[in-house]
Amino acid sequence: MIRFDRASKRYPPGIDALADVSFEIGQGELVTLSGHSGAGKSTLLKLIAGIERPTGGAVLVNGQNVGSLKRGAIPYLRRNLGLVFQDQKLLFDRSVFDNVMLPLSITGFPAAEAKRRVQAALDKVGLLAREKAMPIMLSGGEQQRLAIARAVVGRPNLLLADEPTAHLDAATAADVARVFLEFREVGVTVLIATYDDRLFGAPRRLTLDHGRLAA
Amino acid sequence: MSAWLLQHGQALRLALRRLVATPVNTLLSLLAIGIALALPAGGQMLLANALQLARNAAPAPQISLYLDLGADRRAVQDVEARLKAHPSVKSARLIAREETLARMKASEGLGDVIEALPKNPFHDAFVITPADDAPQAMEQLAAELRKLPKIGHVQLDSDWVRRLDALLRIGRTGVLLLMLLLGAGLVAVTFNTIRLQVLSGRAEIEVSRLLGATDAFIRRPFQYHGALLGLLGGLVAWLLVAGTTLWLAAPVTEVASLYRSGFVLQPLSATDSLALLAGAAALGWLGASLSVRQHFTDR
Ligand SMILES: Nc1ncnc2c1ncn2[C@@H]1O[C@H](COP(=O)(O)OP(=O)(O)O)[C@@H](O)[C@H]1O
Ligand SMILES: [Mg+2]
User: What is the pLDDT of residues B183-228, one digit of tens each?
Assistant: First the structure.
């Protein structure tokens, strides 16, 4: 599903965010990615989504070499991924419903079917009752769950989340973590960058230290 | 196909929503575009009317053909037959030399002088109306007529056609120049309006990209927005010109009737109106495309 082959990422002017990283994640696995702040977790996720390109080695997703994809092919890669960003990137000028609708508008889903899917995704994260609310009216935990609903509404087979439980109290964090576990149950491959991998049961764990994978 | 339609419908609806969401900006842009386009459109309207007026008022251009003095009846009939058969000749009227002589004798003052002449000094002549009265076509016809047998002199009465033609060419050049200048103005207005839209929609653009939107998907609503601005601006221009035509119609008719002319001021023709609207929409689309492209290469 995901394979890193001696991948590295150097940001200008010479910051090695990732160095010589190799690992493989199979279909249906749930894996956590931990490490200190600045260890390279976000960078690793960005390489998978084609937001950044590796400066060395190869990153393969479903057998595709993401680093060598043309600019025009990147959107289609992303449509098969569910992305939960560290800073969430919700749109505050539109309702909860419309935020979740966005990925389906992008792929050109027929309206009636899209509406059903959005409501199913909101139901899944427990936000169906708030579909008409604006994101600003939601609590931190609810905003996080909204971001998850938007990530999964396109029914991706790979879900990437960047510190989805940061800044949440223990109970809310456990709540959000449970949503990811449920996706693993239905066969979605899940990769979560987190400080707190105990929330996700006893998953397989990758640990980064200054851009290198710790044993 | 239906997905394609769906996406374009979506983009169009989004563009309409954005137009309505900033009503003051939209109205100001439409006014700017409308006034800019009204100038070349109005110029075109006036030009078309001037052409009409000139065609009505000026005498039909003709060619006069004088035969040799020695030409006999048979030669005259021969030339007449050739003229009738010529495809560029619409009609040819014979003015026989005897007829001219009789008319001259009858005219006051000249009669005695003519009477004193030993023989008829006048030529047989044809007055020819050409099928095509463009100056070049007339020159060519005259040149061909000079080659007929027993021809003395061919005279072209096309000076006024040349003058009118030159004037119309100036008018057309002026309208074209206005069109180019103010078309560029339209592109600039949409470029700027769309640039502001792109800036205020940056967050949405960034998120859409991250969620798998193609460049075309992001560009499309802005292009429709630009095209709508152009189209509606074109409509404003059309209304301005139509209003002016209506307003001028009564005084123009009054002046025309003083000159015993049935001339009536015509509004912009259907073809010109369509060209105005389509051209304005296309230029708006272009301005928006340039604006969005600039944003794409900015990052
Ligand atoms: N766009 C960037 N330009 C330059 N340096 C960056 C950029 N993004 C991240 N970095 C650097 O790369 C390193 C890894 O960052 P990041 O992947 O965000 O770590 P983490 O998510 O584990 O905190 C850090 O030293 C960070 O400062
Ligand atoms: Mg990070």
Answer: 999 999 999 999 999 998 889 999 999 999 999 999 999 999 999 9
Does residue A104 sit in the same domain as residue A18? Answer: no
Mean pLDDT for chain B overall: 87
Q: In this structure, is residue A8 part of a structural domain?
A: yes
Q: Is B214 on the interface with A (CB under 8 A)?
A: yes
* Prior bond of A203 cis (ω within 30°): no
Cα angle A136-A139-A140, degrees, rounded to a multiple of 5: 100
Instruction: Let me know: does B230 contact B289? Beta carbons within 8 Å.
Output: no
Interface confidence (ipTM) of the complex: 0.92
Say if ligand 1 is within 6 A of residue A165 CB: no
> In chain A, which residue's Cα lies nearest the Cα of B218?
A106
**In chain A, % of residues over pLDDT 90:** 77
Interface membership of B203 toward A (CB under 8 Å): yes
Provide CB contacts within 8 A for A88, sequence distance 6+: A143, A144, A146, A147
Pocket of ligand 1, candidates A42, A44, A160, A194: which has the most ligand atoms within 8 Å of its Cβ, to mutate? A42
Torsion of the alpha carbons at B53, B54, B60 and B64, rounded to the nearest 10: 170
Measure CB to CB from residue B210 to each of A83, A93, A108 and give the nearest one.
A83
- Give the start-to-end residue ranges of the domains of chain B: 2-57+171-298, 63-157
Domain B63-157 has CATH 3.30.70.3040: yes
Same domain, A62 and A8: yes
With an 8 Å Cβ cutoff, is B99 touching chain A?
no
Q: How far is the CA of B258 from the centre of ligand 1 (A)?
A: 85
In this structure, the answer to whether residues A179 and A212 fall within a common structural domain is: yes
